[in-house]
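I am writing to request your help with a piece of structural work I have in hand. What I wish to show you is a protein chain and, alongside it, a tokenised description of its three-dimensional fold. Could you please explain, in whatever detail you think fit, how the structure tokens follow from the sequence? You will find the record immediately after this paragraph.
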Amino acid sequence: MKQAKFLRPLIPVLAWLFALSIWALLAIWGATWVQPLQERATDLVWRVGGLHAEERRLVLVDIDELSLKELGAWPWERERTAQLMQKLSEHGVDQQIWDIVFADERHGVSVLKAQIQQSKPILSQIFALPGQGDDIQGGQLAGALNWPSCPAPFETASGYLGNHADLTGAGTLVGHITPRLSHDGIVRYQPAVLCFQGRAYGALALAALMQAGGEDNLALVRGSGWLDPQWFLQGAQGAFPPVPLHANGDVRMPWRLAPDSFVSISAADLLANRVPPDLLRNAWVLVGSSAFGLNDRIATPFSSAAAGMQAHAQFMLAAMDGRVPYTPKGHLLLQIGAVLLGMGLLTVLQLRRRSAPQSNTGRFSVFSAQWLPLAAVGWIVLLLLAHAVLLLCGNLWVAWLPAAAAVLGAALLWAGLEHARSRKDRDRLYSHLSSYLPQPVAAALALQPPSSAIKASIRQVSVMFADIRNFSAYCEQRPPEEAAAVLHAFFSRATDIVEAEGGVIEAFQGDAVLAVWYDGAADNPSHAQSALRAAVRLSAGMQGVLPDPAPAGLEPLALGIGLECGPAMVGSFGRASRRTHMVLGNTVTIANRLVAMTMDLSHPILVGEGMAAQVGASRLESMGTFMLDGMRVPHHICAYPLTPGERDNITVHEN
């Protein structure tokens, strides 16, 4: 009991330490396999929480399958591209952003160059990240930021594909469209700035923001507060909201808008004047392609094959609104806070369980220990919802899976330890209970709730009553300690013999023992013979246990045993608050009355007629028919005389 009391407060301590260990393992050292699972959960948040409102500030001009069908296969001649650029200017667009790289030498480059000088579009270039085309170099790089060097957070590219040198004159802004593919191919990050040969080149969306705000340079600022990102990129003049960056200089893609939120028109419709005249006025226009032949398809949280310009459109709009998601510098504090809150919830539930009274069913209320894993699952759902709210409303991306796994693991450990402790307590309780009740009864009661109903049944039994004659006078004359020692020795010897013969001690009644053998037991098919053997062994086995000779002035102590077979009512009786287990019926009464007659008939073992019919009469001696005390029908009684050999060897020859 002391050990159990010591272990009980240790269980929550172990659970808390286990939770913190799991969190540290996953949050600090397990990012390589935890991160992909968290990113997929974030994809689900974007799909479920993405906005479906029509976006008119940025319109997509799509070089789609219809455009290739009507205007010819890609790549078009430069005159056709200049014509499309001119048409956009005629519609009064505020800004043209081209998600296309014009790298090769084609006819009409001078026409396109002139149109670029007139329309002032933002062009694209693409870099090769290390290991993704190290030997690629084509076209002319342009649009380098006015920085003395490329800062440490940004990655150095290994190759590039720029525009034709004639198209990137002075004053033309160029941004890179380099994606960073995740393990499953989905674009979740984009490098905000990439380095090549010591120069820094911003992304296409940043170039668009710079041109719209009249900025000529970007400034890199380190976040200061614990809710700030690691880095900010902002215009030198502050013309647009700061863009938060990841620790490695990447931007987390803000997939806030569902694909159907964008207004997309075909380039063929635009050139054929099939577009409403005011649709593009004062809007930003992003020109790209969804045609499969142009190889500009990416995987997004919404689709496995989406147009690449959708990523740039999402980035631009989120940057315009200051809603680019990021991971704050204090994300580990937020995670550990989630672990502590979750463990606090489990602790409160356990405290409520211990303080809650048991119900009438004997089971604890909803705060029972087995509910801890379910509570942890609920906490995981809350963490996922909090992750979604922080992402969609607060632009914060905080890892939630390490905290969720930590609380769930601790809940499973806690519930397991509590279950083991409960089993140990129940086993200890059963051990105590079975020392006061028959073991089968104790085992049944341990698994049943208390009840005030009668739970009894009629069974065929063999009953043995064994009583110490003259014990009351002995107790009156001898010290209580001595009488208790005799009684303890008698009960112990009787228990050993009865259980060895397959019987059950039903009760100790004063200085008497009531033992029962039940019919049909798998290990005791002949319960009458077993009861008789137990009586013979007990009678002989008490030699040397009872004081012999008796103390002066006292009658000698002797054992009287009564045996009978027949039906009996076996079960539990009384209110739920105080019940008793009993064996009732004439069979028990006859065995009890036979004990009283052992002195009158001078035989230590008397057998009723039911028992005699079961064991046979060859070894029994008929004592005649007697009217037993309190009974109206005479009963035939037999005696079982003990032979000297049985007294010495405690052996019974079965008939």
Observations:
- The longest strand covers residues 558-575.
